[in-house]
Specification:
The model has no long low-confidence stretch (mean pLDDT 95). The protein has 214 residues and is an alpha/beta fold. Helices cover 36% and strands 20% of the residues. It folds into two domains: 151 residues, Rossmann fold (3-Layer(aba) Sandwich), CATH 3.40.50.1000; 56 residues, DNA polymerase, domain 1, CATH 1.10.150. It is globular, with a radius of gyration of 16 Å. β7, α8 and β8 form a beta-alpha-beta unit. The strands form three sheets. It has a six-stranded parallel sheet with strand order 6-5-2-7-8-9. The protein has a three-stranded antiparallel sheet with strand order 1-11-10, with no helix packed on it.
Length: 214
């Protein structure tokens, strides 16, 4: 299978960095502090900003203080972080001006997770503070495409969670889904679904990037 685009936009958690253990461990710690069942939170947390997750399930706790606690807890925990297989090789094969990251993490957390697993922080990164509305709103992917100098319709987005897939599609981008945190059937409308980057290749052709699934 072959896909053509002009630029690639990547979610961070679950796409480049496997942080599932850290994310779920943090939410469980937070739930214990508040004596809450965290399962409803965990079902929607992946792909969303912490504030938006709180607003959806426990809106009375969606405060600056709670968001700050969650962010600080994740900043202190790197145990179990690892790069998604072959993600580093795939990024290295892309022209640096043609890709970037759009994440629901704060800037400090995104930088920590990237460097913890050996990635350089790219020149273009959109973080939670950069947009008024987080995923599943399209704001982040629209901004990411704009910063790279492309229309979202010219981009392929790599996502692992339903809110991110929805955000990318709403922005007008096509999606390659990674079933790292969700089953492929749960990820919605995407061009292809992959488990990691092992069988994905990219080459430049004129003004396009050509992605091939081996």
């Amino acid at each position: 299978m072959e896909l053509r685009c002009k630029a690639c936009l990547f979610d961070l958690d679950g796409v480049l960095v496997d942080s599932r253990d850290v994310v779920e461990r943090t939410w469980r710690r937070w739930g214990q502090l508040h004596q809450l069942d965290v399962q409803p939170l965990l079902r929607i947390a992946h792909g969303r900003r912490a504030r938006d997750t709180l607003r959806a399930i426990v809106p009375h706790l969606a405060t600056d203080a709670e968001v700050a606690w969650l962010d600080a807890a994740e900043l202190e925990d790197v145990d179990g972080l690892r790069a998604v297989p072959r993600a580093r090789d795939f990024l290295a094969s892309l022209p640096p001006e043609r890709w970037g990251i759009v994440t629901s993490c704060s800037r400090p957390l995104a930088q920590l997770r990237l460097t913890a697993v050996g990635f350089a922080v790219p020149a273009m990164i959109v973080v939670s503070e950069d947009v008024r509305r987080g995923k599943p709103a399209p704001d982040g992917y629209r901004l990411g495409a704009k910063r790279l100098g492309y229309d979202p319709t010219d981009c392929i987005v790599f996502e692992d969670a339903p809110p991110g897939v929805e955000a990318a599609r709403a922005a007008g981008a096509r999606v390659v889904a990674l079933h790292t945190t969700h089953l492929a059937a749960e990820l919605g409308d995407c061009e292809i679904a992959i488990s990691d980057f092992s069988n994905l290749r990219v080459r430049s052709a004129s003004d396009a990037l050509v992605l091939t699934l081996a």
